[in-house]
Amino acid sequence: MAAAPLAPHALYQEVAEHLRQRIFNRQLEPGSWIDEMALCAELGISRTPLREALKVLAAEGLVTMKVRRGAYVTEMSERDVREAYQLLALLESDAAAQVATRASSAEIQELDELHQALEQHVAQRDEFFHANEQFHLRLLAIEGNRWRQHIVTDLRRLMKLNRHHSLFQPGRPQDSLKEHRALMAALHARDAELARKLMHQHFQQGLAAAQPTER
What we know:
CATH superfamily of the largest domain: GntR ligand-binding domain-like
Radius of gyration: 19 Å
Strand order of the largest sheet: 1-2
Largest sheet: 2 strands, antiparallel
Mean pLDDT: 90
CATH class of the largest domain: Mainly Alpha
Number of helices: 9
Structural class: mainly alpha
CATH architecture of the largest domain: Up-down Bundle
Number of domains: 2
Low-confidence stretches: none
CATH topology of the largest domain: Four Helix Bundle (Hemerythrin (Met), subunit A)
Number of strands: 2
Order of helices and strands: HHHEEHHHHHH
């Protein structure tokens, strides 16, 4: 069914968000060519806001512009995935250590509540995926390093392009939940080094699940 046309006054940021969600929902698959004329007709917009939107998505890494070939949804190579996991492991493990040391009891309780959403949705992939992202982003917000948050948000956005995301693999949500339980125990115990170690291992296990041929 054709999408409803966007309002005539829609800005390129709205077009970018619309396309961003289509990419995340796999309506536009990684590696696929973006048919600009078809999208303009479908959304009821001119080429100008679409092209500006594509520039935004290209800056985010979600779209790759190829000379004389147009725009394509970015594909994550095995190396891209490995390097993204390595960076996330470093950044988020340090954040976990900081939270274990400095977070208030109320903030730890917030993480507990987000963890309970993981417990409730472990059998529902999309809900678990969302709850997992909310947990990690809230932990970063509590830690409070805005530069770390910016980098991790960009990396997590790109990770949504990964065809073999770890949480898509059979059994991985259950294993991830166990890792989150151990992390929460370390945060409650205010054990910074254990929290750092467990978060790092969490990403190592995620990488192993995302690249089954390397296991």
